[in-house]
Amino acid sequence: MELHLETLDNGIKLIKLSGRLDLAGTQQIDNDFAFNTTTTAAAIIIDMSEVEFLASIGMRMLLSGAKGCGNRGGKMVLYNPQPLVADALQTAGLDRFLPIFTDIEDAYVAVQP
Amino acid sequence: MNGQVVEEKLVLRNQFDELGRLSEWVSEVTSRLDVTSRTAFQLDLVLTEAVTNIIGHGFMDEEVQEIWLLLRYAPPILTVVLQDKGQAFDPLEQPEVDLADNLADVEIGGLGIHLIRSYTKSCTYQRLNDSNILTLTLQETGY
User: Fold this and answer.
1) Confidence (pTM)
2) Which residue is closest to A59 within chain B, CA to CA?
3) Interface pTM (ipTM) of the complex?
4) Residues of A numbered 15-54 whose beta carbons fall under 8 angstroms of chain B's beta carbons: which are they?
């Protein structure tokens, strides 16, 4: 599991996750993820396009990030999850708190203060 | 598979690092059974959640014990029976996730059982001969 952080010219943090967000994968990145999502008020887009699998432990990590980000006045959304991952997110009801976008321009607009 | 019934078995230890071996087994078995990627994903997810629950709740001491999985595919029905000799634990009695309307009020937990219920056609629990027996069925939809 890998996490790659990029700060875009428009100030948005783009966090790209790659791999399986199961127990082992989540443990590999959760400290890094929490640090990058909950320590500053930020506009954050999580690029989910290379996440192949998502278990409840990974969903909890995403939800904790969104909660911490929101508590600091920021906003976090998900970008372009694979269809089966998107279905799992929707089945769990997480899309109510972590809006899912397939168009990056729409995601930019959604996270702007 | 021409509609024939196929059975596969796996034995795991009650340790979280076995979850990787579980997913590898699911991947290998589902590709052999030629089920759709949707069914393979959902089977991986429900078994990951079920085994995580069993390991987390079923055993009080540190003694290494086994969890047996028997998968039976009688197209289009996939049935997995999970059996262990841990303390009586019915995961289906655990409270489901209760996602509040407001993100700040969300309590994070109970997602696993919600996913199991959502992605299975049926799920049942029995306590029999000092064993926990959890039976999950999924239906291959072909798409």
Assistant:
1) 0.93
2) B111
3) 0.93
4) 20, 22-24, 53-54
